[in-house]
């Protein structure tokens, strides 16, 4: 290895270290925001929270669909009138 190759590799390592530091800082900022806004201290905890919310949403959509169907059965003939 000659001096020029060493300098080139050293610069590359320094550039990659700076890039890594920036990414780490961004990740910390996002994790701080996740904890502040959602009360989650890990991605796993956030993922579990999302799953619970999706399950709750699906149950509410199913409940709404059933209520709408019941409403249509009861009042559908009135809704079709052009009066």
Structure description:
The chain has helices at residues 3-38, 43-79. By secondary structure, it is an all-alpha fold. The protein folds into two domains: 1-39; 42-83. The model has no long low-confidence stretch (mean pLDDT 93).
Q: Which overall shape is indicated by the principal axes computed on the Cα atoms?
A: rod-shaped
Instruction: Report the end-to-end length measured between terminal Cα atoms.
Output: 91 Å
Which sheet architecture does the biggest sheet show? none
Decide which structural class fits the backbone. Answer: mainly alpha
Helix content range of the residues, please? Answer: over 70%
Number of strands: 0
What is the mean pLDDT?
Answer: 93
Order of helices and strands: HH
Low-confidence stretches: none
Number of domains: 2
DSSP helical segment count = 2
List keywords for this structure.
83 residues; mainly alpha; 2 helices
Structure at a glance:
The protein is 88% helix and 0% strand. The protein is mostly helical and 83 residues long.
List the helices and strands and how they pair.
Blueprint lengths: L2 H36 L4 H37 L4
